[in-house]
Amino acid sequence: MSATEHSSSAPSTNWLANQPYLLLSITALCWAGNAIVGRLAAGHIPPVTLSFLRWSFAFLIILPFAWKNLVRDWDAIRGRLGIMIVLSITGIGAFNTLQYWALEHTQALNTLLLQSAGPLVVAVWSLVLLGVRLTLAQAAGVMLSMAGVIIILMHGDLTKLSNIEFNRGDMIFLVALAIFGLYSVLSLKRPDIHGLSFVAFTFGAGAACLIPLFIWELFARPLMQINSANLLTLAYVALFPSTLAYLCFNRGVQLIGANRAAPFFHVVPVFGTIMSIAFLGEHPQVFHFIGFALVLTGVFVASRKQSA
């Protein structure tokens, strides 16, 4: 949920909307699933097609719930149309298309490592655009949680770091990460509108900006086959990492700010590891628990509100 949810007038009736850590944890869980599904979809659904259909379906899902708010907030949206278009292009259209494209060319291990740099990217954009510097606690938390992610991904063997090779997919994902960091910071400048209005507009505008690329891809790449696996993929990405995750992420950033929310990027690969244990039959090891402890400690330290 993003922008002003109007829940401040009745916080007791909307408990979840005022729980930033829970909202951001839900976001991380959904995005971990998106990385797994996106990797499985590589070679079956072209990246622009997957992104365009994802956001088109998400827009259709959210529109009936958002319509009244969207009509009421339209003047405010029109008054800040420039920033709303930029947010739609960066956070919706560009980031996700590049992510799916990257997953066609790189391994999951590499993307998870790169994603752990998300908080640093957000910190750079916050400094450049808003003049906001990381506090000592935030910097320490980022480093702790990044160390935990690396321990998990390296299975406790840090010598594996020297064997990682970065390729074109990794470079694409780095660009995607920089774009999403920009979106995270710019989202603080969105107009004072209801969260449903915000996601409905950005979902629709983000999908619309992909139409030229989508048409090009229809002629340049093999068409997506209509089968149960691909339809289930589209249903998942439209519902969970799109509609649910972006509502939660935008509201979480609104409540605690981009820098304090950014360490939750590190929870994504943690959830991805948990999913691999649960669904792929991998067995938990000591390094999992060490890594989880470091990640959670880092997120706690970095996302705490500083005392006055």
TrEMBL record:
One of its GO terms (cellular component) is plasma membrane. Pfam families: EamA. It is found in: Cell membrane. It comes from the Bacteria. It comes from Bradyrhizobium jicamae. This is Multidrug DMT transporter permease. The chain crosses the membrane at residues 21-42, 48-67, 79-101, 113-132, 139-156, 171-188, 195-216, 228-249, 261-280, 286-303. Residues 21-153, 168-303 form the EamA domain. Keywords: Cell membrane, Membrane, Transmembrane, Transmembrane helix. It is a multi-pass membrane protein. Its main location: membrane. The lineage of its organism: Bacteria, Pseudomonadati, Pseudomonadota, Alphaproteobacteria, Hyphomicrobiales.
